[in-house]
Every structure is written in C-alpha cells, then in structure tokens.
C-alpha cells in the first residue's frame, strides 16, 4: 500500500536567510514568526518554466488552506540577471505571486536545505520540523493529502494556529500594456479596422482608428493583462483589444469592452497566410501559455476559439516513455483530436512554408511541435523531451525551454533556446525530415555577454528571434538587456542594441513608419512597451565574459558511485506497474568523458555509475521519472481500470568535483526525505 511521504525522524528546519523579503510590506520573516503554520518552501528561479508550473499548481492549495498554510518562495537564481533585486521584484509582480518571497542570491537558504534542482519543495510542520522534501512538479495531489494530515495532527496537539498569513500585496503596475510578451505586424487589410463596435476604453472604432490602421498595425500579447492589444504604428494608439482582461479560459466574443473570451498569460502569435486563414476560419494562432492551449482569433468577427490542447499540463499526464534505450524520443502525430492532446506552456508560434503548418515552441516539455490549421493534426517534430543542448536527428535532440521562433528564407526555423542561452536551428529538408544544429551556446549552465566567434560567444536566456533582411539573425537577449546579431556567413556574434529592460521579442519592421530604413521592433517587457530600434551599420563588439551557474559542487570519489533516487507515492496512489517498471533514469555527463559507464536510459531508480579518475570536475545530468495512479487497490492488488494517473519527473544537473575522499553514493529525492 502507498503511504504518505513523511519521515519518522525529527529534522529541525534551518533558518531562512537571504538579502531581502518581498510581499511582506517591508517586514523580515523568520521561522519563529511562522510557528504554528504549515510552511511550504518553494525553491524557484524566475527563468524556470517548471517553477512557473509549480506556482500555478500551488495556487488552489494556497487559497483552500489560506488560514493555516504559508507558502514562502525562496528565489535562488540560476542566471546573473536573476540576482538583480529589481528584476526579481518585476518577476514577482509579473507572475502574480501572492505569498512572501525570500531573495536568496547567495544560495544560503538553498544550501541549508540541500536543494539540488529547480523547483524543490520543502514542507515544514507547525512545530518547525521538516516533513517532506519534493523535487520537480506534479506534487499538488500529494500535498492535498499531506496538508489535511498535518492539520488534523497539530489541531489535536494544539500546535496549529489559524489566521491570516504574512502576505502583503505590492503596488500594482498600471498602463496600457503590462509585461507584454510577443508582437505581430498586421499588414493593411488584415487588422481589425473593419470590426464593428468600440475600441479600448469605449471610444468609437471609427475614422481615427481606420486611418491609423491604413499603415498596418501591431498585435501584441498583453501578457500581464491576459489579453491582446492591437496598436497603431506609433505604439500609442489603441485600435482594438481582444479578451476580457480577466485571467481564465473561455472562448467566444473577444473584441472590445463587451468581450467574454479569456486568456491566461498569452505569449507567441502568428498570422496565418490568407488562403489558410480563409479555410480555417480564423486569422491568428496564439500560444495561450498557462492554459496549455493554442487559441485562434478571427480578426473579422473578433471571436476566440480553442484549436488544440485539453488544458492539462503535459508533464502531469502519463504516456509513453519519453526516450528509448538509445535516447530517441517519440515523434509524429499525437492523435486525431487536437482538443484531446495535452500541451505544456506553448511559448511561441511561427508559420512554416515547408511544413505547411504552425510550428510551436513547447517550452514546458523542451520540444518543438507542429499544428495543421486545416486538419487539426498535432505532432512532435523535434526534441526527445530531455532538457539540455544536444544536436542531431530531431527525435534525439535536446532542447531547454525554447521560447522564440523565426523562419528564414530557406524555410529553416531558428530557435531561441532560453535555458541553454543558445541559438538553435531546425534544418528542414525537402522531404520534411529535420536535423537540429546549434549556432551559439554551450550548455544548460553556460551563459554570459560575449561577442566574437560563435563558438566562444555567449547569450543570457534569450526569448525572441527574427531574421534580418541580409539573412543574419537578431536575438532578443533577454537577461543581457540587449539585441544580438548572429551572422551565419562569418560565424560571428555582435551586439545591435543595449540597455533594454528584458526584451522578450524582436521583429523586423518594413513599414518605414519611422524613416526610410528598416527598423527593429523590440518588445520591452519590463518597461511595458514596444520600441523602435535602428539596425546600426556598425554593430558593437562586447566582451563581458562567459559565466556558469554557480552552485555547490558535490565531492565524489573516482570509480563506482551508487545513485539512488527516492520516490514514495502519496497516500491513495500506487506505482503503475501494469506494463513493467514505471520508473526510469536517463543519465549523461558534461564532459562525456566523466562517465565511464552507467549512462543511458533504463528502468529503475537505482544505478551504479563509474566516474573517470582522469576528469577533475563536471556535471552529471540525471532525469528521473515515475508513474503512479489513483484509487484504492483491488482485492488482487491491481490498480482499478480508468484510474487517474500522474507522472512525476525531475531533471537534475549535479556539479561534481572528483577527489579521493569524496562520496561514493549520491541520493536524490524525487518524492521523499533528506
């Protein structure tokens, strides 16, 4: 039988140490101030898509148990930019985090709780003892069992204190846009000028709006307001809005003040070719990221519809193993009903002339999908779902939170691969086979601000990409606050603009609205605006160095290393062994020479690795997954038919240093206790 993930040992929680507190009204918190509450520490970093998923998973629990549960976000940065307190405050507002956040830039609290991955959750009982240590996402169901157990136990002991928590809401940012995500140019005749009704704010959508739209317009995902806004080429005139502005999910009328359609942090958007749009019945495809859906928008009648996605976050669904023994992932069609397919944080979309389909950056699963607007077919076209940087055949390639897409003149797709700080390319052959190449980027923990030869150049968490008129590629280098340029002809990287506030997208503007030369349009997310940026004749050369994410290195001995990943299914769940062992490990290393044996993919959560004595340090890449299903066991011990099932998964990058007196075993918690 399953049992709750709790320890029988009494482990005292460590004090919460950091630079500053957010969402507390300027007050500092400590464990003594939280005594009597169930405390949930959420170790996160704002670049991490898995961390953003966990924020949404926890919201219902926070609301249900608001009088006894206090969530504390411990922000432990991966990238240098994330250690900036101003950037962190913006992220806390952007993601509507309604609990206290501890700024932990030196990883003091991270190290005290032996966190090894983002996200990590630690549960502390009302007496100040650790009762659970969880890695990855998908733990909401288990917490929904554990929290009532703790409530009952500590009410009986008299150690539970009900009442309001320490959260104090910050002052909200106001303006037409709030943390905009992506933008799309609408040529004259393709915008909403013909829509009847009113423009934003109730003013008639008449002659002034039509006159502004004669130059074309810009459709922007107003991500923080959960809507889309159509702007004139002055970036000031509002021509139309789409979506009610209330976070949620609803199809239907989307235009103007009477809109009932709802979005949840929409991101990328693409305008379909006119002939395709006429047949499909909508003009724009939108990556509705937190709803885990693709949405359609008709600019002729202002209606929103759902094109693909069942609303279930894909990593929370069980399914085929993500990789086989050779590391190849599933590719191909995901079924005939697009509304029955689970997606995961679609972040950007682009039309592919070669594939005759919308290409989707599926950030949550580290893969690239496609969607055919005419047939509804949804397919995985690249990426085996493992997080990292690995080129080659599409079904063997690794991506890491791909967030920006652009098609070049040859029909290939450029990818801003944010978590590897890389610029990648899908090379699409005439037979539609795909090979993945990397132009800039080294690995999951390598970043910086360095121009020059592409092999040595560094970016920092890029979110957008576009192809320039000369065939070179511009990148919204988000955490460096810059627009960078990669020249495929010379294999070099340069800088086009600096001093931008988290640019999340970049697009070439050919309208000559601000002069005779083509300009760049940059979505400046943290200044809540779109801006024109000239394409300089002479690009800058910047070298502020290359960096790596600095986390504590685990001392390990050369030779045999016994790896154990602990997993205990929550109360009411059982490991799903109906088709064999439901657990899996995928292991590799950087450099590859670090791992003499024990790499690859196989079932089970125990593995003996052999580490080379000739390598001084490196990173072990470990992916663990386990599938468990709901419901009481039948008399024969089997899981009932039609039981709801859950996938637990975490990717770790464990920095190690080899020394003779180092550890000979490594224990990680997927769902267990330190």
UniProtKB/TrEMBL annotation:
This is Thiol-disulfide isomerase/thioredoxin/streptogramin lyase. GO terms for molecular function: isomerase activity; lyase activity. The keyword Isomerase applies. CDD domains: NHL-2_like. Residues 5-152 form the Thioredoxin domain. Coiled coil: none annotated. InterPro entries: 6-blade_b-propeller_TolB-like, NHL2_NHL_rpt_dom, NHL_repeat, Thioredoxin-like_fold, Thioredoxin-like_sf, Thioredoxin_domain. Keywords: Isomerase, Lyase, Repeat.
């Amino acid at each position: 039988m399953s049992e709750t993930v709790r320890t029988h040992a009494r482990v005292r929680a460590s004090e919460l140490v950091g630079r500053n507190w957010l969402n507390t009204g300027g007050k500092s918190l400590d464990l003594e101030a939280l005594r009597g509450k169930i405390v949930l520490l959420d170790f996160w970093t704002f670049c991490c898509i898995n961390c953003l998923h966990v924020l949404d998973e926890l919201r219902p629990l926070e609301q249900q148990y608001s009088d006894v549960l206090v969530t504390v976000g411990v922000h432990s940065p991966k990238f240098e930019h994330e250690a900036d307190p101003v950037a962190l405050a913006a992220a806390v507002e952007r993601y509507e985090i309604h609990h206290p956040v501890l700024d932990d830039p030196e990883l003091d609290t991270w190290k005290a709780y032996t966190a090894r991955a983002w996200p990590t959750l630690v549960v502390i009982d009302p007496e100040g003892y650790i009762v659970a240590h969880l890695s990855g996402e998908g733990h909401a169901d288990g917490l929904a069992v554990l929290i009532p157990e703790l409530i009952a136990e500590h009410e009986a002991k008299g150690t539970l204190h009900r009442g309001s928590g320490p959260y104090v809401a910050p002052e909200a940012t106001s303006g037409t846009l709030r943390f905009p995500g992506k933008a799309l140019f609408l040529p004259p005749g393709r915008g909403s000028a013909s829509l009847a009704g009113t423009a934003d704010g109730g003013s008639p959508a008449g002659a002034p709006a039509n006159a502004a739209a004669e130059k074309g317009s810009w459709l922007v995902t107003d991500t923080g307001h959960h809507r889309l806004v159509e702007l004139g080429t002055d970036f000031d005139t509002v021509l139309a809005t789409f979506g009610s502005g209330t976070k949620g999910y609803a199809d239907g009328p989307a235009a103007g003040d009477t809109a009932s359609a709802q979005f949840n942090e929409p991101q990328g958007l693409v305008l379909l070719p006119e002939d395709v749009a006429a047949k499909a019945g909508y003009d724009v495809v939108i990556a509705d990221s937190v709803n885990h859906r693709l949405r359609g928008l008709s600019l002729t009648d202002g209606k929103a519809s759902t094109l693909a996605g069942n609303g279930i976050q894909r990593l929370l669904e069980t399914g085929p193993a993500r990789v086989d023994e050779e590391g190849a992932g599933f590719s191909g069609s995901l079924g005939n009903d697009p509304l029955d397919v689970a997606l995961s944080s679609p972040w950007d979309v682009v039309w592919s002339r070669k594939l005759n389909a919308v290409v989707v950056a599926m950030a949550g699963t580290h893969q690239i999908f496609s969607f055919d607007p005419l047939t509804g077919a949804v397919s995985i076209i690249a990426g085996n779902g493992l997080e990292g940087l690995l080129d080659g055949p599409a079904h063997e390639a690794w991506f890491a939170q791909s967030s920006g897409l652009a098609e070049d003149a040859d029909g290939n797709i450029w990818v801003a691969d944010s978590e590897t700080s890389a610029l990648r390319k899908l090379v699409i052959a005439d037979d539609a086979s795909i090979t993945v190449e990397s132009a800039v980027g080294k690995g999951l923990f390598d970043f910086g601000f360095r121009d020059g030869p592409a092999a040595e150049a560094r970016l920092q968490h890029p979110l957008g990409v576009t192809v320039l008129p000369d065939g070179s590629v511009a990148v919204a280098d988000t955490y460096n606050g810059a627009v960078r340029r990669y020249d495929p002809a010379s294999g070099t990287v340069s800088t086009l603009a600096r001093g931008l506030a988290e640019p999340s997208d970049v697009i070439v503007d050919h309208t000559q609205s601000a002069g005779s030369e083509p300009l760049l349009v940059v979505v400046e997310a943290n200044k809540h605006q779109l801006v024109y940026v000239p394409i300089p004749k002479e690009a800058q050369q910047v070298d502020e160095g290359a960096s790596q994410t600095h986390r504590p290195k685990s001392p390990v001995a050369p030779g045999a290393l016994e790896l154990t990943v602990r997993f205990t299914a929550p109360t009411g769940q059982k490991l799903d062994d109906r088709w064999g062992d439901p657990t899996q490990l995928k292991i590799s290393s950087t450099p590859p020479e670090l791992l003499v044996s024990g790499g690859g993919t196989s079932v089970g959560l125990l593995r003996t690795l052999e580490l080379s004595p000739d390598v001084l340090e490196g990173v072990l890449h470990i992916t663990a997954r386990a599938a468990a299903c709901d419901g009481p066991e039948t008399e024969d011990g089997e899981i009932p038919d039609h039981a709801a099932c859950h996938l637990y998964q975490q990717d770790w990058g464990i920095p190690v240093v080899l020394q003779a007196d180092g550890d000979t075993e490594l224990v990680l918690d997927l769902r267990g206790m330190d």
